[in-house]
Amino acid sequence: MHAPVEFADLAADVVARIKSRAPRVHCITNYVAQNYTANVLLSAGAIPSMTISPGEIAAFVASADALLVNLGTFDAERRAAVDAALDAAEQGRKPWVLDPVFIERSPARAEFARKLVIRRPTVMRLNQREFAALTGNTTEKPQDFAQAHEIVVAVTGGHDMVTDGRRSVTVSNGDPLMSVVTAMGCAGSALVAAALAVEADPWLATNAALIALGVAGEVAAKSAPAPGRFASWIIDALYTLDRATLRERTKVS
Amino acid sequence: MHAPVEFADLAADVVARIKSRAPRVHCITNYVAQNYTANVLLSAGAIPSMTISPGEIAAFVASADALLVNLGTFDAERRAAVDAALDAAEQGRKPWVLDPVFIERSPARAEFARKLVIRRPTVMRLNQREFAALTGNTTEKPQDFAQAHEIVVAVTGGHDMVTDGRRSVTVSNGDPLMSVVTAMGCAGSALVAAALAVEADPWLATNAALIALGVAGEVAAKSAPAPGRFASWIIDALYTLDRATLRERTKVS
Amino acid sequence: MHAPVEFADLAADVVARIKSRAPRVHCITNYVAQNYTANVLLSAGAIPSMTISPGEIAAFVASADALLVNLGTFDAERRAAVDAALDAAEQGRKPWVLDPVFIERSPARAEFARKLVIRRPTVMRLNQREFAALTGNTTEKPQDFAQAHEIVVAVTGGHDMVTDGRRSVTVSNGDPLMSVVTAMGCAGSALVAAALAVEADPWLATNAALIALGVAGEVAAKSAPAPGRFASWIIDALYTLDRATLRERTKVS
Lengths: 253, 253, 253
Known about the structure:
3 copies of one chain form a homotrimer. Chain A is an alpha/beta fold.
């Protein structure tokens, strides 16, 4: 269906479009992840905003190009913000990404995530444990879930499985250090949102963002062998990511 | 009026006074910026505190030497905190800085900022878009606004314009990477607050802080060519900033 | 009682156990410290979580191995979260660490800290000013306080004094740069919580964590001479900390 070089070029195109168009990405995300997420978006060329204030979130989403809804450090204020933000996103037909962080640790959060899936996120990104908690069923396949809910599902980990029900690929870029830096997954979801702002096919956009972040991780790990420095270097690798590097490293099957 | 070397020495003096006196700076700032702002203040030699809890903010401000009011991730709790903090600042005659982040994206926030201007911040630091949103008038000059409200206004960007209505200069230090790191402007406003704690003339204090941060940015950019590492290196450049470097690099006109 | 080499081996054992068992540490901590604390825990091999949402904090604590209660950016929501978390910790017999940040600046916060001491934290870590504010008595000795309340007390600073009333030692590892990075003390308390999850003797666990962090600080300072880079390098030093380095550097008397 797609050769790795096509995905590499797709990722390079999306990265270039984010840089040239500077899309605004509004992020409802947890306090732990806010600063790192903002820096990842800025390094990619996007403009982050983060307010959850009820009196202004609709205005922020209305003037944004994409929305991220991350459920980490989930509280009443944030739930209200999510509702208002999704109303504004639906009205403005903005793409949005759902990242149901840590729902395997909290039944209340998993229940809220299920309600959000009904509102049809453009993309849902989560790990295997979170996917199992969401479906309550360890045998359900991401493909079937994606098809049933008409969304793109990305189950990330050592390998990232990206599916819209019809099309499915596995992205195998990245480095183990990425799991030793907090908010890396959250920042990845924010990058998916930025990609959705510049690529109309959400399955392609998701692949492009995950490839870009994974390749940046590989480049960073060469110079920064431990998580403290790695957290900075991956931002720098994303800032300087070019087509040649993407062509050399993209691993999609 | 002032030659660059005078400004360089001013900046060096203010930097040295912050280091020796270790002023306490209470910051009401957004979640995205808190950690970075605290580290910038610590590297300069100041003591940051950040609570917005209604039961204790007055006590924190009363025992601080300066206050920062930043309107990012603005919510009801923070608005109440601002009121209590400004009461305490007025009572204790503490200098304070207003940083009306992103008011061009939110009419409610712009309205709140206008009310805060009436309470006479010692210094207001903002960018050109925010200034236009505040005044609702793209032709109003910062000089006139500063004079009318009897405050110092710093409109920052590629060049920083600093005016108290009578005296106006342009500080041209800095590096483009500073705009690719989140919270850099917020941290700059916090540094202005620290300068106000050790320099009685708020116009001089503002210039000193913006020169110091801008020169630190130039020094950092020499060693750190991308935003991830740059974010750390500018903190280090501020920590080691000396008079010779300031004299060599200060650009004021 | 214990020779430095015994403490070095203790620290190495605890560090190895955290890496192999990956204990879950739930942290109620201030916004300034959340990201850095999470990265310090991840680099040591622990799994951080940070929610304070009333609807789910009990579930998070019930599935955690240790709990941190840090009083920075203290507010009503956080006080309620602390109560719910301590109920869950008591029911599950989970060890917990109290870090009463900045109580010398806020009488309300000091009062709340005193109430928490009655609930018997496994360990209380604080600095000298905070200890004086807590006891309201500059002559009370940590040993007596520890014995009276049947807790471990660690008064940290240039030297860390660790006592359970019967056993007392001074850990003299660390580097002055540690006090120029925000959240370093908070992260240290989180590391104590991780150690409590893998070492049943809380006095030994506290010593092990403080030695490990202090030695990591010494190693980091050799390569990173200023606070911006140091903040990353200490995470890396913790990630790669080995028994030989601990044996070479541990200073306990």
